[in-house]
């Protein structure tokens, strides 16, 4: 069950004088921060992992895409498990599993083990993250939630900025000779503390009329995405074998089977994984397309950007991490302005301006990368990154309300859960496409003198695709309402969850 549905069925909040609820808040927000930082911290260490562990191109894609895929596939189911079995219980199981998976990542003996551990980490995050705001609603009375959501927003912003910097520092310091491993091992003391304190201070809550699980739906979604993503990431290395094309074509047959099954599931017990009737709402269908395509573009950009700076230009992790700070600040600034000032006055035009600004920043970056080549500096990158960050901020904050504005109130929860899920799926797909739009350009077995120029060329080529994606998003946004209505009290809370689930994006 998604968040807005949970809200209506939550148990009574704790009494206003119960100080335990603030301890519970600190625990769940620490867990949210840990998940947020863990996603943003990894990209900066990818070149170090590739260099020290001998990871292939496909493997480094799966280190990030595997997490996103597992997270996306389990989000809705994770929320329903909390409704059925208790949010506290599932939260503790998720944070415990996330901590174990982090240890396995840090102790990985080869790239294959690291990829498997990252997939497990994403699955555990899918159990942990949906419970965070549900626990808040079950713990705090309505008059205190504004303050709580403000704190949550601050945590999200802090994690977006601190994740890349923390990853850069931990990688650069090479603590105890562990190279990149501390970026995962740092989760262990935090996770153990959260597990112990959560068992003591979090109050249990359930939904009296929770939706049933749709494990067949989850299996079909996961199978379809795997059939599409695996050939994309490995196809170039294997010479694009015939089975890869067959698998990608078969993925669409699996998705067709998913649609047929979800229709039967909805008619039988009213608890499908995907509420297909939502797609009859034009603005919602267009919004889902925007979220998916936006995820694809960002998935491509952030991985390619990291490889360009560290492998292509030879920059240190710390220099690369600091280069991303103007982008993160611009995202946060524009996000606040778009929701509070701009969207109420200009409506949909703000989101479309964001898409155009992002595209303009990307094209400026393409020009600068070609103009300055290997001699480009951090300061020369600042302008395109700020323009891109402003564009992204204008989109991410108000997009959820725009997508939900014409959705019937009774389906707001299902719609919000689906928005979160498809954005993560788009991100995983974008990471898979890196093998085509970037690695497919730079080639294999480069001579040392050719690595830098090849990575510059690959970066510029990949950014051309990102600019095209932003152009498509601009056109899709014409199907959104001209003035998104913010009439859903549940959507306000769910927007925070959506921003959190996009956490990996506004950072390096």
Automatic annotation (TrEMBL):
<feature type="transmembrane region" description="Helical">
    <location>
        <begin position="148"/>
        <end position="170"/>
    </location>
</feature>
<feature type="transmembrane region" description="Helical">
    <location>
        <begin position="379"/>
        <end position="404"/>
    </location>
</feature>
<feature type="transmembrane region" description="Helical">
    <location>
        <begin position="462"/>
        <end position="480"/>
    </location>
</feature>
<keyword id="KW-0812">Transmembrane</keyword>
<dbReference type="GO" id="GO:0005886">
    <property type="term" value="C:plasma membrane"/>
</dbReference>
<feature type="domain" description="Major facilitator superfamily (MFS) profile">
    <location>
        <begin position="24"/>
        <end position="483"/>
    </location>
</feature>
<dbReference type="InterPro" id="IPR011701">
    <property type="entry name" value="MFS"/>
</dbReference>
<keyword id="KW-0046">Antibiotic resistance</keyword>
<keyword id="KW-1133">Transmembrane helix</keyword>
<feature type="transmembrane region" description="Helical">
    <location>
        <begin position="283"/>
        <end position="308"/>
    </location>
</feature>
<keyword id="KW-0472">Membrane</keyword>
<dbReference type="InterPro" id="IPR004638">
    <property type="entry name" value="EmrB-like"/>
</dbReference>
<feature type="transmembrane region" description="Helical">
    <location>
        <begin position="320"/>
        <end position="338"/>
    </location>
</feature>
<feature type="transmembrane region" description="Helical">
    <location>
        <begin position="242"/>
        <end position="262"/>
    </location>
</feature>
<feature type="transmembrane region" description="Helical">
    <location>
        <begin position="58"/>
        <end position="78"/>
    </location>
</feature>
<feature type="transmembrane region" description="Helical">
    <location>
        <begin position="182"/>
        <end position="201"/>
    </location>
</feature>
<dbReference type="InterPro" id="IPR020846">
    <property type="entry name" value="MFS_dom"/>
</dbReference>
<feature type="transmembrane region" description="Helical">
    <location>
        <begin position="213"/>
        <end position="230"/>
    </location>
</feature>
<feature type="transmembrane region" description="Helical">
    <location>
        <begin position="350"/>
        <end position="367"/>
    </location>
</feature>
<keyword id="KW-0813">Transport</keyword>
<feature type="transmembrane region" description="Helical">
    <location>
        <begin position="21"/>
        <end position="46"/>
    </location>
</feature>
<protein>
    <submittedName>
        <fullName>MFS transporter</fullName>
    </submittedName>
</protein>
<dbReference type="GO" id="GO:0046677">
    <property type="term" value="P:response to antibiotic"/>
</dbReference>
<keyword id="KW-1003">Cell membrane</keyword>
<dbReference type="GO" id="GO:0022857">
    <property type="term" value="F:transmembrane transporter activity"/>
</dbReference>
<feature type="transmembrane region" description="Helical">
    <location>
        <begin position="425"/>
        <end position="442"/>
    </location>
</feature>
<feature type="transmembrane region" description="Helical">
    <location>
        <begin position="115"/>
        <end position="136"/>
    </location>
</feature>
<feature type="transmembrane region" description="Helical">
    <location>
        <begin position="90"/>
        <end position="109"/>
    </location>
</feature>
<dbReference type="InterPro" id="IPR036259">
    <property type="entry name" value="MFS_trans_sf"/>
</dbReference>
<dbReference type="Pfam" id="PF07690">
    <property type="entry name" value="MFS_1"/>
</dbReference>
